[in-house]
Amino acid sequence: MGPFQIRVLVLCGLAVALDGFSTQTIGYVAPAIAEEWHLGREALSPVFAWGLIGLMLGALTFGPVADRFGRKRIIVACTAFFGALSLATAAAHTLDQLIVLRFIGGLGLGGVMPNSIALTSEFSPRRSRGTMVMAMFCGFPIGATIGGFAAASIMPAYGWRGVFIVGGALPILLVPALIWLLPESIRHLVLQDNKTVEVRELLTRVHREFAFADGSEFTIREESAPGLAVGHLFRQGRALSTLLLWIVFFASLLDLFLLANWLPTVFHNAGISLSLSVIATALFQGGGVAGTFALGWVVDRFGIYRVLTVTYFLGAVFIALLGHLHSIAAIMACTFGAGIGIIGGQTGANVVAALVYPTYIRATGVGWALGIGRIGSIVGPVVGGIMLAQRWPLATIFLAAAIPAVCGSAAIYSMGWTRRSTSREARLAGLAPEASK
User: How far apart are CA 424 and CA 431, in angstroms?
Assistant: First the structure.
């Protein structure tokens, strides 16, 4: 590890933080929009859903595109794009306009995450790759948390439109720094273009003692295969791991966006002030930050599959408890704990996705896992709207919200068991240890 890798981590973390800010903004301002436009709270469900459909399509599309054209280009383009769309959203005056703008902006938001994960992973030392990716992903809940406190401060003075203006200006200001300071993936440059001069310069910046003669050729001991990248997610023994990973992402993001989008409204309907409701939801994101930092050390010590199994299960427990609490302090504490379990678990799942796939399909693998997860993130807010429209009791709503976390815990446990079994079979077959990982 050196300053160059830390720079990559920080820049990707900043891009992801602004992604988190912009993604979560609609949840924070939804009650204010509904009040200004005289809408029922459930009327905003299509806004949540179409924004998340955009996120899903962006992740599915820009993962494979980046594997072909480069991580940096996609991160820069998508950051600029969602910043511009956030500014445009501040000018929306009808529900239909808001739906269209959130959908289009979601396309850009969806492209940032998988490529930031892939780029951070590829510049990280193998022994600390998981910790580095988790540290970078902290940007998302940090951005979402800051968004909550910012929304609580901005809305009384400038209204909900001011939140979108801030959420659009910040990404656009970051773009020049990304263009100037963010490197392209060295592995991508070798596999796709073999740009020798650029590779040599980047390796020298990674470690100043590296020295290469002019005309040096570079290779990577990783496979590369022709054809549709998505198909390779199911080859060479990866099919079951891919399907289980998709289940984890689906369940995890369903819960994450169900809670992130509807907690302010649910708490407000239960009689808590709007400002406290927003702060409680921000603590959900803050729990994700705390959980991510704590999990980095625990994962290195006990293994990612065991830790994530327990993390998701504890998240389910905290969510279920929320339906039985009346004290503001207890609600805040359990919301924080739910953030540790759900957002911390999702952070760990991102690490798993980055470790499972080789370079030539890494962004595709992460992007498709996130894309399938985005289907869950669409289902979650819609289900939340239905439960509110049907006036379900709070205890029942939160009990239902705990079920996906239990499913995620079971799926990640199964994935770890499957991969350990595969490794044992590989060792019995006489494969080298590196080939069985």
Answer: 10
Could you count the other beta carbons within 10 Å of the beta carbon of residue 333? 16
Please report the domains of the chain, with CATH numbers, ordered by start residue.
Answer: 3-218+227-436 (1.20.1250.20)
**pLDDT, tens digit, for every residue of 227-236?**
556 777 887 7
Sign of CA dihedral 144, 94, 165, 66: positive
The total number of residues shown for the chain amounts to 437
**pLDDT tens profile 38-62:** 887 668 878 887 888 888 888 888 8
User: Whole-prediction pTM value?
Assistant: 0.74
Q: What is the mean pLDDT of the chain?
A: 83
What is the distance, to the nearest Å, from the Cα of residue 358 to the centroid of all Cα atoms in its chain? 20
Task: Give the C-alpha separation, 49 to 61, whole Å.
Answer: 18
Residue 295 contacts residue 377 (beta carbons within 8 Å) = no
Is there a contact between 145 and 286 (Cβ–Cβ < 8 Å)? yes
Pair of tokens at residue 192: 């796709």
